[in-house]
Amino acid sequence: MLHGMTVFDAHTHLGTALHSGRKRTVDDVLRDMDHEGVDQSLVIPFPVVEDARATHDEIGRAVLRYPDRLRGAACIPPFMPERQYREEVRRCRQEYGFAALKLQPQYQAVNPLSARFDYVFESALESGMVMICHTGSGIPFALPSLFMMPARRFPELRFVLSHCGGGGILAGEAIVAASFCPNIYLETSTLMPNHVLEVLAHIAADRVMMGTDLSECMHTEIHKLLGLRLSETSLRMLLAGTALSLFGNADAALASSASSSATNDGVGGTA
User: Is residue 24 within a helix (H) or strand (E), and if so which, with residue range?
Assistant: First the structure.
């Protein structure tokens, strides 16, 4: 909790990345969360791992051990038999209660416009998961606008566009996508503060959420929002409310936050 407000990191990673050599354990994640006042995090596999199933098990064990701190997400290479893909999504949901499924077109060359890969979105919908879609690096398949088509084909599926287009370069595309598709949500990691304000000028705060992506970015990603002149209601939605409505127990966490703020002068550090 930070200044009496619940904080939910809607985008962080756990496991070992083959593409970058990064390794992050559950102890690393929790230590970073505690240091920055993050209450809960959605933990996602790195885009390229040696064994997706084993990484899901690693995340799943962490989620079961720390259910009040962590929610899990799956990320599965789509170029496998469709039946196998669907079975792994179901397993992650049934065994570990994973809340989301991620598609990473930077490393998984899937064209969101192609009905050939509808099974990816169907798998998330069938298991009651949120669909997280990387945007930004990896274009053309990572263009935010391309996810408008599956969002329209699957109106009951909630989509989160990670990085909101990436670094602000494609933030306008993400804004347009969310404007025309009410089931598209935006996550703000990599945006500059002015880009966040531009997003909020068009998209309500209850469809925008904070994510950190990398451990060294956590402090900056959180505090760039604290530095904006936002209403308390909007700030609470960005820091936790929107993510909790998709991935967590929003009512309980927000009630805890409100109770804490009633006895907190709002000036102190983390609790």
Answer: strand 23-24
Cβ atoms < 10 Å from Cβ of 200: 20
pLDDT tens-digit readout, 167-180: 889 999 999 999 99
Q: Is 260 inside a domain boundary? A: no
Type and span of the H or E element at 63: helix 52-65
CA neighbor of 148 nearest in space, from 185, 178, 118, 121:
178
Question: What is the per-residue pLDDT across 221-235, written as a single tens digit (0 to 9) for each?
Answer: 999 999 999 999 999
Pairwise CA distance, residues 268 & 31, whole Å: 20
As for how many domains the chain has, the answer is 1
Structure tokens at 24: 């992050």
Q: Which residues touch 38 (CB under 8 Å, ≥6 apart)? A: 2, 7, 8, 9, 32, 218, 222
Q: Considering the domain boundaries, does residue 1 fall inside one?
A: no
The reply to whether 33 falls in a domain is yes
Residue 189 in domain: yes
**Helices and strands, counts by H and E, the chain:** 11, 10
pLDDT tens, residue by residue, 183-218: 999 999 999 999 999 999 999 999 999 999 999 999
Q: 212, 11 in Cβ contact below 8 A? A: yes
